[in-house]
Specification:
The protein is α+β, with helices and mostly antiparallel strands and about 325 residues long. It has 5 helices and 19 strands. The strands form 4 sheets. Strands 4, 5, 6, 8 and 9 form a 5-stranded antiparallel β-sheet that branches. The longest helix is centred in the N-terminal third of the chain and has 26 residues.
């Protein structure tokens, strides 16, 4: 009889300790948890916006656990846009922590379509949400009995109603005066008669040999317009950081911009390159002849959304061939 009393007492103490441990762990905040940072923009390209959501699963327990899966839905107006998953089968040591992130892309066309369908075209952003669950394998230790194995998480974020577009217009090369051309050819070793004839042919718009400017030291300007537009309603700021023109020779010619910022829905940035015939004579001849390989215009820029909390000057790159036959010739 005495022995059965002792066994019952021990069992009571063990059960009590288990329930006390679980309650104490929860009260002390020592249960596993999921923490999220705000959603940020990872990158921009000409097709859409890539977002990321950083999260961490913490295990403050004195025993190891496993993450079965972290899964989430990206929602707009409670409708699923896409599903995400990560960290299947990852082990967490005692007092360990695992950080990771979800990446997902929302195309500009989707953003504009959702804005139109929900009559939000006049709004500046769309409200999205991420709802998810971290599913844990807590093991069989008595210390974890009663603790939640599914940890829900949620975070809201705004998607700017936005679609950037770029185009190039009015490419041209500006010729020096007839006398400046003739004098440059003479200085390059050509006799006066031939120099005058070649200068006259260039001014008259006639074809020239690709080596016509060999040994000639003469500056000419190449100019065109970069047209920038936002098809959405989100407030934005566009900053052109640097740009260049790559010719068939493989050399990149740096361009300068008269102004490099646009904050309205659209605008134009005039860009100019100063070419010298000693290094770019063949390219200039191709422009004059409207025949040859197309140069490639490239730029690096930064975009900001001043009314939203995303990081400023998000990088965006662009490149575009300029058909050599579209270059005009100015005097």
């Amino acid at each position: 009889m005495k022995k059965s009393y002792i066994v019952s007492f021990v069992s009571f103490v063990v059960i009590g300790l288990v329930f006390f441990s679980c309650a104490t762990l929860k009260q002390l905040g020592l249960a596993p948890s999921v923490s999220l940072e705000k959603v940020s923009i990872a990158s921009l390209d000409l097709e859409g916006i890539t977002f990321n959501c950083n999260y961490a699963v913490s295990n403050p327990l004195p025993v190891g656990i496993s993450i079965k899966k972290v899964a989430a839905d990206v929602l707009y107006n409670e409708s699923k846009f896409t599903s995400l998953s990560a960290d299947e089968g990852v082990k967490l040591s005692a007092s360990g922590k695992k950080s990771n992130k979800f990446n997902f892309k929302i195309p500009y066309e989707t953003i504009l379509s959702l804005a139109k369908k929900s009559n939000a075209s006049s709004s500046k952003y769309l409200p999205f949400k991420i709802n998810g669950t971290a599913s844990l394998d807590l093991g069989k230790s008595t210390i974890v009995q009663g603790l939640a194995s599914n940890l829900p998480f949620s975070v809201s974020f705004n998607v700017p109603i936005f679609k950037p577009s770029f185009s190039l217009s009015n490419p041209k090369v500006t010729l020096p005066s007839l006398d400046s051309l003739k004098n440059a050819f003479v200085s390059g070793g050509m006799n006066v008669v031939k120099a005058a004839a070649l200068a006259g042919s260039i001014v008259a718009g006639k074809a020239v040999a690709e080596n016509a400017f060999d040994g000639v030291n003469l500056d000419m300007d190449v100019q065109f317009n970069l047209n920038v537009a936002n098809s959405g309603s989100a407030a934005w700021k566009y900053v052109l950081k640097n740009c260049s023109l790559k010719t068939s020779s493989g050399s990149a010619i740096s361009l300068s911009a008269a102004n490099n910022e646009i904050s309205s829905s659209s605008g134009t940035i005039p860009v100019t390159a100063k070419l010298n015939t000693l290094t770019a004579g063949k390219f200039i001849a191709q422009i004059l002849n409207k025949k040859g390989e197309n140069p490639v215009f490239s730029f690096d820029s930064g975009l900001s959304f001043p009314e939203l909390s995303y990081a400023p000057n998000l990088p965006l790159s662009y490149s575009k061939e300029i058909p050599i036959g579209t270059f005009g010739v100015g005097k």
